[in-house]
Amino acid sequence: MKLATYRDGSRDGQLVVVSRDLSQAHYASHVANRLQQVLDDWNFLSPQLQDIFDALNAGRARHAFPFDPAQCMAPLPRAYQYVSAAAYSSHAELLRKASGGASPEQVSGPAMHQGAGDALLGAHDPLRCANEAFGLDFGAGVAVVTGDIPQECAADRALEGVRLLMLCNETTLRHLVREDGAPGVQSQPGTAFSPVAITPDELGEAWSRGRVNLPLQCSWNGRKVGMCEAGTDMAYHFGQLIAYLAKTRALRAGTILGATPVANAGLEKKGQWSWPAGFNCIAGKRAMETLQDGQAATEYMRYSDTVRIDMKNAAGHSLFGAIEQEVVS
User: Fold this and answer.
1) Around Cβ 190, how many Cβ atoms within 10 Å?
2) What is the pTM of this model?
């Protein structure tokens, strides 16, 4: 299935079912008004939404209407919690090398931080920045929405708790991070999500062992800057990430876990650094420049800058719809 949340003047919006080709939609109000309702009672309500989805794709839905991504809030506008995981160790290692930091001691799992889940952004919502000097950076990634996950859940069982997948743009104010490089409470102004959330089976063979094996496309001011394979260098798959998060406490249905930014390993040859697949955050680009030239040259985002994030299947069709945002004051 593909699900979205339309604006209706409320904080949680109105749940709609979206056709596979993202051309048509149908309100799900006779089944559930909000996506959180479905997540709370997934086994009973999701088959009813599946019936709407099948009717849409077959052209049998009587009250279908053209789908407009610009009318979408985040698929889950408010979440019990949003957690971001550094699932791509090559990206963290690149930033460490560029900053001259010492190699960290052996750790038992991925680095994670708690993000704000009270006001998640829609795919076309503006990126509001109080001051350009804060160093606004985009961060293109993939996120999952879970069902109920018990404490100390094993990774394979945790993977079965993945209900939906989305694209995300986790923005960071790089000049407001803590001295140790970790995000501070004011350095994460918001996270935006793709117009639709999809069930794992919509990915077909691209969803394998807890990874999405497709390239994530990222453009900045209309210029393609990233084409990183989302599954290739993912050190921890989503089952492992969920299990690590649930190590000491249970997770409620509606937990969002993001793996961002998606990154592929950079290459070093005779002192020259390259990043063949591009970059999904400016900090990564600046780190590569620092390693190669001794200092970063790329500036962070400015007012009127735009960022676009999308993922297409093997046939070239958008799976989630694109995140398209503009920086505003």
Assistant:
1) 18
2) 0.93
